[in-house]
Amino acid sequence: MKESPLITLATDFGYNDPYVGVLKGVLYSHLKNPGIVDITHNLPVFRPDLALPFLLDSLPWFPADSYHLVIVDPGVGSERQGILMRGFFGWIVLPDNGLPQQLLKWLGPLEAYLLNKSSFPEGNSSPTFQARDFFAPALIRLIQGTPILDFSSPIRAEQLKTIPEQSSGNCLVWNTDHFGNILLGYHVQKNPAEVNILLGREKIPFVGRYQDIRPGELGVLVNSSRWLEIFSREDSAANRLNVKIGDRIPVGIVGGEGRYL
């Protein structure tokens, strides 16, 4: 068994219920001195497609011997499968809800394995809390050194569930952060010459920094993680524009290079 494994958790469980604590209790009970990092437990509920950018922003910052448990599982208790993957960021365990296939496209190449449900009889019969009964035990076996093929089998990319791709020119709002900034589903590889956004009567200028506009004014920029971000300096753009997670915003992008979620 590996001592002091670094484990990250990202879920849509929130903080009002005991689910996160129970999940940690299972890990602490079976592993030696794990270091557990909470990436977030406020992933958009029932939306695995919106979990992707949170992982793109966080996984690359962790060492290659890390372990990650990601749970957004609208298919809990159903016939959906469990997936184990390995990449430059370490190992990740998660449901086959479209997110593994997206991770392959954005962070590949990755090794992918199908968790054998027969190896986890308790989890296989768990109707509502398979994070505790199926996915966490799979991660524990991996960390304890159980041979991977004893509880999983290789799976090809085309066998994974897919998520429909977003059409160009229409950006998905994947997060409104603590500051009220609106995170758009366009990841910039080369800065555009212009970004044209008109919301109601608000034409939002494309700028380089928050300080390029006066307090209270709106702007759009390429943020530090290379996403397009609408902001209101020292104010909440989300409240001002009445924008929420899952909305789609028409965006005109001139020049540069990037990709949509």
UniProtKB/TrEMBL annotation:
Residue ranges of domain S-adenosyl-l-methionine hydroxide adenosyltransferase C-terminal in the record: 173-249
Family, per entry: Belongs to the SAM hydrolase / SAM-dependent halogenase family.
Keywords: S-adenosyl-L-methionine
Keyword S-adenosyl-L-methionine: yes
InterPro entries (UniProt xref): SAM_HAT_C, SAM_HAT_N, SAM_OH_AdoTrfase, SAM_OH_AdoTrfase_C_sf, SAM_OH_AdoTrfase_N_sf
Annotated ranges, domain S-adenosyl-l-methionine hydroxide adenosyltransferase N-terminal: 7-148
UniProt name for this protein: SAM-dependent chlorinase/fluorinase
